[in-house]
Amino acid sequence: MQSPAMLVDLSRCIGCFSCVIACKQENSLPPGTNWVNIYSRELFSPYWQRYSFPNSCRHCHQPACAAICPVGALEMTPEQVVIYHGHRCIGCYLCHSVCPYNAISENIKPSKCTLCYHLQQRGAIPACAQVCPTKARVFSSREEILKEAEERVFKLQSAQKAVQLVGNTGPTKSSVLFLAPNVPVW
Amino acid sequence: MDYKNDNPSYVRPSVWQSVFHPLPGAANEVRSICCLCNGGCGLIVKLNDEGRILGVYGDPANPFSKGTICPKPMAAAQSLYHPQRVTTPMIRINGRLTPASWEDALDITAARYLDYLAKYDNAAVVGIMSKVGGSYSKLALAIFESLTGLVTYGTSPVCTSSEEVARTSLLGNPSTPNPLWDVVNAKILLIVGNNVAQTKAGLFHWIMEARRQGTRIVVVDTRFTETAQQADLFLPIRPGTDGALALALIREVIANQTYDHDFVAQHTAGFADLSAAAQKFTPEYAENITGIPAGLIRNLAEDLGRLKPGMFFGGRGIMCTNNAAGAVLGFEALMCILGNLGKPGGGIVSHITGYGKPSQLVPPDKIVKPVKKRKAAELYPAMETGEIKMMLIAGNPAVTWPDSARMGRALAGLDFVVSHTLFMDDTAALATVVLPATHWLEEAGMQASVNRVLQWRERAVEPFGEAKSGGDFFRLLAKKMQLPAGLFPSSPEEAWEMERRLTPPVSGISLDLARGTAGGISYPYPSNGQPAIRLYADGQIKTPSGKVQLQIETEPLSDCYPFFHPPLKGAGNDEEIAGEYPLMLNTAKVAWHYHTQSQYSLWIKDIPGPYLELHPDLAREIGVKDGELVTVETRTGCVTLPARITRSISKDSVCSQYSFGQISPFKQQPVNTLFPAVYDPVGGNFVQKNLQCRIRKAKGGF
Description:
The complex is a heterodimer of chains A (186) and B (702). Chain A has 186 residues and is α+β, with helices and mostly antiparallel strands. Helix content of chain A is 25%, strand content 25%. Chain A has helices at residues 18-27, 64-68, 94-98, 117-121, 127-131, 142-158, and strands at 4-9, 37-43, 49-55, 74-76, 82-84, 105-107, 109-111, 137-141, 163-166, 176-181. In chain A, strand 2 and strand 3 form a beta hairpin. Chain B contains 21 helices and 26 strands. Chain B has 702 residues and is an alpha/beta fold. The mean pLDDT of chain B is 91. The chains are: A alpha+beta (186), B alpha/beta (702). Chains A and B meet through helix 1, helix 4 and helix 5 of A and strand 3, helix 1, helix 6 and helix 7 of B.
């Protein structure tokens, strides 16, 4: 299976909570467990900006959570998706303490986004990317996504917007890439 | 991947279950249309073997929504199985609602109805029918009204009345002239008081696509909204002063000679008077009123004159105010004199989607005329004085109508209230007879959308419990009241065939045609013509004179041209108390709630509830932090809400969301209770924005 990736484009996000709800619907998450959280951000640097920031698991290519999990509840698949086996988890919260992105939900037991691995195996795309009304979330193969991201970066930069692509290379390389403004948003 | 437990048993304590259970592959998928915001997004409803809804997704085959949806339909589908859903009829006996059969409930309703008709006249019974159901139920209601002389109030007085009045007098037809997707053909799009990104989130991609293709998006709003985030230009305006901006733009366009001289000469009436009415609104004069710099007004007027075709998309932010009609008329007259009307990508988008009313539903000898037609605001005193004895309700007026607390008290004081409802809400709790209604996913019907199409919505699931649709309810009630029940259609399919036969503008849209076309059929589509994508493309204006009437012809301000009336001098406000109530209260909609319908899901803890947006300076003044409780007071009432501190709102106003009730899962006093039952004197819309208020930190505990 080709390595998949998702692009989250903050310049397009309208903070409508579609991804949050679609995720809860698809994975039947109990109340209080959210794998996607939307934070509203207002910044004064370098000029006044307002963003909705949908935070979720990045599916790091070097996942700290999977490395530290004592029971193998978090596992990296060959497609570089970090999946979560709920039935194995003993609830020690080590993953929660090492996650640099605060992407692990801490209700009842720690749990996190599986990039809808069950849907991918059926040939479908993750629920959040299916419903996103503005295509702020797109899901495809990694090559496609990088191409799309490049195009979007070019267009935004031509419109004098300072943007950066996060999660492309280096230690933060991940399967979920963010197109973020050139200021720390999280 | 298999999810079965392959670990030794000591790893997992047996009480610990997995917190997530991905949905199984659906046994069955049904195509449906979302009935929430007039957007008409296509839905795919996934069902399990027992026909219960597993989940709702977007329909990729729908050419307008393209497979994407906002969170509302997902939440609305969950509400089908909510514990607060009414599943069986109930009759109040000795003050307690007791389960009963439909037969008994209808018997007692019909008996009381006939009793009131015999003792008084048909003005003693009224209906508030904002949520009666789909096309089938609306048609049955129309027949019932003709047979009994029942006067009903729909969403019009709370939502669209002023807009309807202004557009009807301007163009002769309140329906939106252009489909929403037409924005991609526009060169400039003027969005005023409309947060499309939240109110029509599923269709907002059209506006973003338009911008990528070069349409200039200008947003005028009192808040820096999500729509403004995606715009080329955002003009923050003082609450309630949009009329002044419209007049200044009209004046500039006329002064620059950039209006369409041919269109004005051939197709408009009253241009000279319009020009005179706008004369005093120089950009500098408008700057003093609106707070928008004169230079920006000049630039915008130049852009509007240069970039044609242009489009106007107004929202509830200017339609539900105490000076709404003048402002709506101003912006729409501006679009007309620019010559945009009827062109691809030019004109007006609105969420009014009327396709014409059926004529001669009932043989003339059976028609009963209503004895009295009251204005919506006159309902309150009529209910309080006992003039009205009985009320038929489908909706939740004790939350959605202004001065909600007074509406609740008035409802409690009535002799007999029938609530045909989905949920046990604030209104149903006051009713004498509560009847279970069908959800829109349980009722087939023809659905008009803001893209000017009629789409057929199939019934996705069987009605839950003993729920019956409005269509069935009115037919059965008519039968019990010895009215000719044979006049009523017996199924949604039959209802549509009947409706289209009697409604010439849509007579070409047969059921098979609508069923077989993804995205539906554009209307008007008379049986002897072609479907029309937009109105007025042929220059035929539907006003009596055949020309665009640039003035309002309705009493009491007849012959009034687009006007600006200061919001503080308008209904509900008083300049003398401006010191005591220094702020303006606004209400707005968010993407994750739609009236009372999507509050009944399992996810309400995970999405924001009601809150009050306020500027950090205001928050500091009254000493509240983000999330702390603030009390908002107006002369009508007071409500306590958690604060959300944001710089996206100006210092002179605060904003909250309506449609939360005391008996809803959020247990919130409705914000509409702060608004008095007063209306825009020209348009007749209840005032739901720009009301004087003051805030303070809430005292005491919860």
